[in-house]
Amino acid sequence: MADRTPYPSETQERFIVRLPDGMRDRIRSAAEANNRSMNAEIVATLEEKYPAPVVEYDPERVAELLERMQAVLESYSEPGASQEDTWVKAAEFAALRDEVRQYLPRKQGETRE
To answer: In the chain, what percentage of residues exceed pLDDT 90?
Structure first.
């Protein structure tokens, strides 16, 4: 069997947490109300409490990231690309997007997903 590139969810850090009685149901309810998964709800809540450090704006770096994002988008239309290639490009685009987001101002209490 050929080696494959792992999906982004397979390479992200995992952390097991024991929840008090009833908390899972409260998280599920909040996630449903916000139209997201329980994992996304937990991450959004943690992001609110523990925001990423503010990065000093670097216009040259942002321009470079946006150019790379554009190149990834243009490569989506390449004929003969496999589904795995598409997933790799999607993961690359998401990583670039997340880096660009570091430079965007946040409103009080806003989270990034």
So the answer is: 35
- Distance from C-alpha of 77 to C-alpha of 111, rounded to nearest angstrom: 32
What's the whole-model pTM score? 0.49
User: Which amino acid makes up residue 23?
Assistant: M
Count CB-CB contacts under 10 A for residue 45.
14
Q: Six-digit token pair at 34? A: 């916000």
pLDDT of residue 113: 47
33 neighbors 41 (Cβ within 8 angstroms): no
Interacting residues of 13 by C-beta distance below 8 A, sequence separation 6+: none
Question: How far is the C-alpha of 66 from the C-alpha of 69, rounded, in Å?
Answer: 5
For 4, 7, 39, the CA distances from 1, given in Å and listed in that order, are: 9, 17, 31
Question: Cα–Cα distance between 36 and 43 in angstroms, integer?
Answer: 11
Largest distance between two CA atoms of the chain: 52
